[in-house]
Amino acid sequence: VYNFEMKEPLINHEDQIRIFFQSHKEIDGIFTINDMMALRVISVMKELGKIAPDDYQIIGFDGLKTSVDQSYLVSTIVQDIGMMAKESVAMILKMIKREEILEKRIVIPTYFWGDKTTKKI
Q1: Start and end of every Transcriptional regulator LacI/GalR-like sensor domain (predicted)?
Q2: pTM
Q3: What is the residue-level pLDDT of the chain in tens, covering all 121 positions?
Q4: Fold of 13-80
Q5: What is the domain partition of the chain in residue ranges?
């Protein structure tokens, strides 16, 4: 298990990713902080001659789509953005009205959507 944190400011993502994976060729499973970062890793890995999910598997986090009727771009942990927005606005309105907030932590369900960049089990 490797924890790869990029140096800030976050510039030259691809160079940092390339150097890391050239140094750790044995890695065959990747989890990224979001789907955009997963797409950057996929691009670099393609340059290195590796294709997901045959050579490695990768999972993003957030459930990014380019449009409502499109599929997810990578295997991902999907968040219900609509519910997140609704609950956030409700809590902010309570704060503005100085109402008591009984639940300071709201759990919003997520789910795994695997297709393009992970193997079927």
Answers
A1: 28-110
A2: 0.82
A3: 888 887 777 777 899 999 999 999 999 999 999 999 999 999 999 999 999 999 999 999 999 887 778 888 899 999 998 999 999 999 999 999 999 988 889 999 999 999 889 998 7
A4: Rossmann fold (3.40.50)
A5: 13-80
